[in-house]
Design goal:
Elements lengths: L12 E4 L8 H9 L6 H4 L11 E2 L3 H7 L4 E6 L5 H15 L6 E6 L10 H12 L19 H7 L3 E6 L9 H11 L6 E6 H7 L14 E5 L4 H11 L6 H4 L2 H6 L5 H5 L3 H11 L25 H16 L12 H18 L20 H10 L1 H11 L2 H24 L8 E4 L3 H23 L4 H20 L1 E4 L9 H33 L7 H26 L2 H13 L7 H10 L3 E4 L2 E4 L2 H9 L30
Parallel strand pairs: 3-6, 3-7, 4-5, 5-6
Antiparallel strand pairs: 1-2, 1-7, 8-9, 10-11
Helix pairs in contact: 9-13, 13-14, 15-25, 16-18, 16-22, 17-18, 18-19, 18-22, 19-20, 20-21, 21-22
C-alpha cells in the first residue's frame, strides 16, 4: 500500500549513530547479560561493537538482532527513508516471528500528546481502533496480571513489539517529555524501535531543565545519503533504462550528483528522487519534448541551496502529477487538483492537529456544528407525523409541538454518537440483548411519545391510546438499542471506498430495521386497541402513525450507527464552496493512482508528511490555531477528542 516496490525498493545504507545519542556498547551488553533468561546462544548474534550495526537494504532485521537489548533508534534526514525502512523491518520481523513471540506493530507518534496521556493508553487505543476484537475484556480464566481489554493485556504481557515512528513529528516542546514517557512505559527489558530525524532527536535529548535524557538501553543507526550511482540508476531505470532518450536527459544531472551542489543534496534521499522522477520522467506514451528539462536542477543561479531546490520540487510535484496525458485525459485540472489538495492538507494540519491520516469520516471536522446534521434530520424525520396530526386535529400548534418535541429526542439520540469524538465507520450490525437498554432508551422515548399522542388524540380514548403507543414505542426502542454496529479492522481494510460502502449499507440497514420494527409494534398495538373498544378510525390513525413514526426512528438509528450521512453532508457543503470535487472519493482514488496520496488501510496519506505541511503552509489561516497549540490531538486514523483517550 505504501508503494515500497515502486519501481523497486531503494537500498538505503546506514552506520552506527553518534556515540552521544545512544547508550555505550559495554553498558548494553551488561544490561542484556543481566536479564533473566539470558543465553550464550543469543549472545553469539550480538555485534562486537557499534560498527557491527552498519548495513543496507534488507539487512535491517539482522541489524536489529545484533543489538544486545533489541532496542534500536533509527535516525536520518527528512525524506531519508526512515518510515520505509521501518516497514521493511516490520515485514522481516513478522516472517521470523516464532510461535507465541511478540507481534511487531507500527505506532505513528504524531497523534500522541505525552503531556496529557501515557504511552500505554495511546498504544492501547490504536490497537483497539485497528482491531475491534481487542476491545473485549480479558477472560476471567487468564492470569491476574492481564487486566482491562485484550489490547492492554497484550502490551502488559509484552506480546507487542512497538515500532514507534516519528518522534520528530511531535511539537518540539514535548519531545524530551516524550522520551521520558517512553522510558517509563517501556523499560529497558522490552524490545522497541524508535525513529526520528537526527537533529530533532539530538535536541530532544536535552530536557528544559538542562538534564540529558537518553532512550534507556538503546543502540542507534543513522541513515546515509544515497550514493550517486544508486540515485543515477534509479532515475535512469524509471526513465526507461540506459540508452533511451528519456534516460539520456539525466546525463548532466547524474554527473553533478558526485559534486558538492544543491542537486546532489536534494537527490540524495528517496523522497527527492521520487519528486524528481515524477516531474521530469515521461509516463507511457508521453512525449519527452513536452516535459521540463531536468538540467534546470543544476542551475545554481536559480537554486543556490538545497532549500531552494526542495521548494521547487514540492511546488512542481502536483502540476506534474496532473499534467494532461495524450491518451488518458484527467478528470480534474491542475488548478482544481492543487486547490483540493491544498485544502485537504490545511484540513489535516489545522482542524485535525497535523495527523497524516485522511479519513473520509473525519471530513465533517471541517465545520464546527457537527450536531447540525442530526438535528435537521431529526426534525425533518418527524414532519410527516406532525402533518398527519394536523390533518386529524386541525391545530397548527399541535403540528409544531409534536414535530419539535419528537424531533429533538430523535436528533439528540442520533446525533450524540456522531457529534462526539467517538464516531467511526461500521461494516455491519449485530444484536446483543441488554436489559439496561429498556431503561436507558425505552423509558425516555415511551414517556414523551405516549403522553403527547394521548393528549393530541383527546377524547375518552386519549389515555388508553397514549398508554399503548408509549408501551410500543418504549419496547421497540429498547429492542433496537440492542442493535450494535460492527466496526471493521481499519488497517486491514482493502481501501477507503470499501469502508464507505460498508458504512452506507449499515445506515440503510438500520433505517429499514427501525422502520419495520416500529411499524410492526405499533400495528400490534392498533389491533390490541380494539379490546378497549376503540373506533376503527382511531385504530387506522394509530396504524398510519406507526408507518410514519418508523421513519424518524429508523433515521435516528442510522445516524447513531454510521458515519455516512455526516460525510455526505460535509462533502456537499464543501463541494458547493468549491473546496472539493463533487466526486470526492473518485478524486482521492485518482490521486492515489498518481502517487500524490498513498493508502494505509482505510485512510489516505500524502506521499510524505513534508508535502502535506508545505501545502498547508500556503493555506494557513491568519491567527488560527495550529496542531501544536490546540488542546486535542488525532490518532492514526483521524479520530478526534482527547477526552476519549484519558485513562
Amino acid at each position: 500500500m505504501r508503494r515500497l516496490n515502486d519501481p523497486f525498493p531503494l537500498s538505503v545504507e546506514w552506520v552506527a549513530a553518534d556515540a552521544d545519542l545512544v547508550e555505550s556498547w559495554p553498558h548494553l551488553r551488561e544490561l542484556a547479560e543481566g536479564w533473566p533468561g539470558h543465553s550464550s546462544e543469543a549472545a553469539s548474534a550480538w555485534a562486537v561493537s557499534p560498527r557491527g550495526l552498519a548495513g543496507e537494504g534488507g539487512e535491517i532485521a539482522k541489524t536489529f538482532e545484533r543489538v544486545p537489548t533489541r532496542r534500536l533508534v533509527v535516525l536520518g534526514d527528512p525524506g531519508g527513508g526512515k518510515t520505509m525502512l521501518l516497514i521493511r523491518l516490520l515485514l522481516a520481523l513478522l516472517e521470523r516471528r516464532p510461535p507465541q513471540g511478540p507481534v511487531p506493530v507500527l505506532f505513528p507518534l504524531a497523534s500522541w500528546d505525552p503531556a496529557r496521556q501515557d504511552l500505554y493508553t495511546c498504544m492501547t487505543l490504536d490497537l483497539e481502533q485497528d482491531h475491534p476484537a481487542l476491545r473485549n475484556p480479558v477472560p476471567a480464566d487468564r492470569p491476574a496480571a492481564a487486566t482491562g481489554t485484550l489490547a492492554r493485556a497484550l502490551l502488559q504481557q509484552r506480546l507487542i513489539l512497538p515500532i514507534l515512528d516519528g518522534l520528530d513529528e511531535l511539537p518540539e516542546a514535548v519531545r524530551a517529555r516524550a522520551l521520558h514517557a517512553i522510558n517509563q512505559a517501556l523499560p529497558a527489558g522490552q524490545p522497541l524501535v524508535l525513529s526520528s530525524r537526527t537533529d530533532e532527536y539530538r535536541s530532544a535529548l536535552t530536557a528544559p531543565s538542562g538534564t540529558s535524557v537518553l532512550l534507556n538501553g538503546a543502540a542507534g543507526i543513522r541513515l546515509l545519503p544515497l550514493e550517486p550511482a544508486k540515485a543515477a540508476a534509479y532515475l535512469e531505470r524509471d526513465a526507461g533504462g540506459t540508452g533511451t532518450p528519456a534516460a539520456a536527459r539525466w546525463r548532466r544531472v547524474t554527473v553533478a550528483l558526485s559534486t558538492d551542489t544543491s542537486a546532489s543534496e536534494a537527490l540524495s534521499t528517496p523522497l527527492g528522487l521520487f519528486l524528481a522522477r515524477t516531474i521530469y520522467n515521461p509516463r507511457p506514451d508521453e512525449e519527452v519534448a513536452e516535459l521540463p528539462d531536468p538540467d534546470e536542477l543544476i542551475d545554481q543561479a536559480r537554486y543556490p541551496t538545497r532549500r531552494h531546490l526542495d521548494t521547487h520540487l514540492f511546488a512542481a510535484f502536483i502540476p506534474a502529477a496532473y499534467r494532461p496525458h495524450p491518451h488518458y485525459p484527467t478528470r480534474w485540472s491542475v488548478h482544481k487538483a492543487q486547490r483540493t489538495l491544498t485544502f485537504l492538507a490545511s484540513h489535516l494540519q489545522h482542524h485535525l492537529d497535523g495527523t497524516p491520516n485522511m479519513a473520509w469520516w473525519q471530513l465533517r471536522q471541517a465545520f464546527p456544528g457537527r450536531g447540525l446534521t442530526a438535528l435537521t434530520a431529526g426534525l425533518m424525520g418527524c414532519l410527516p407525523v406532525a402533518l398527519l396530526v394536523e390533518l386529524t386535529n386541525g391545530e397548527i400548534a399541535a403540528v409544531l409541538l409534536f414535530g419539535f418535541v419528537t424531533g429533538v429526542p430523535c436528533a439528540a439520540i442520533g446525533g450524540f454518537t456522531t457529534s462526539c469524538g467517538r464516531g467511526s465507520p461500521s461494516s455491519g450490525i449485530r444484536w446483543g440483548w441488554s436489559g439496561r437498554a429498556l431503561l436507558t432508551f425505552g423509558l425516555p422515548i415511551a414517556l414523551p411519545f405516549g403522553l403527547l399522542f394521548g393528549l393530541l388524540v383527546g377524547g375518552g380514548y386519549g389515555l388508553q391510546v397514549g398508554l399503548m403507543v408509549g408501551l410500543a414505542s418504549g419496547l421497540t426502542s429498547g429492542l433496537l438499542a440492542g442493535v450494535k454496529p460492527v466496526h471493521p479492522e481499519l488497517d486491514k481494510a482493502v481501501g477507503p471506498g470499501v469502508v464507505l460502502a460498508w458504512d452506507r449499507r449499515t445506515f440503510w440497514s438500520m433505517m429499514l430495521l427501525g422502520w419495520i420494527m416500529c411499524t410492526v409494534a405499533v400495528a400490534l398495538v392498533s389491533v390490541a386497541g380494539f379490546f378497549f373498544a376503540l373506533s376503527i378510525s382511531i385504530g387506522l390513525l394509530v396504524l398510519a402513525v406507526a408507518v410514519l413514526v418508523g421513519y424518524p426512528i429508523g433515521l435516528m438509528l442510522g445516524l447513531a450507527r454510521s458515519m455516512w450521512v455526516d460525510y455526505l453532508a460535509a462533502r456537499i457543503r464543501l463541494a458547493i464552496l468549491g473546496r472539493v470535487p463533487w466526486r470526492f472519493m473518485s478524486f482521492l482514488d485518482d490521486a492515489h493512482a498518481r502517487g500524490v496520496l498513498r493508502q494505509a488501510g482505510a485512510v489516505y496519506q500524502f506521499r510524505h508528511i513534508d508535502l502535506q505541511r508545505r501545502l498547508a503552509e500556503g493555506h494557513r489561516r491568519p491567527g488560527g490555531p495550529t496542531g501544536a497549540t490546540r488542546g486535542r490531538q488525532q490518532d492514526r486514523h483521524g479520530w478526534s477528542g482527547w477526552e476519549r483517550r484519558q485513562p
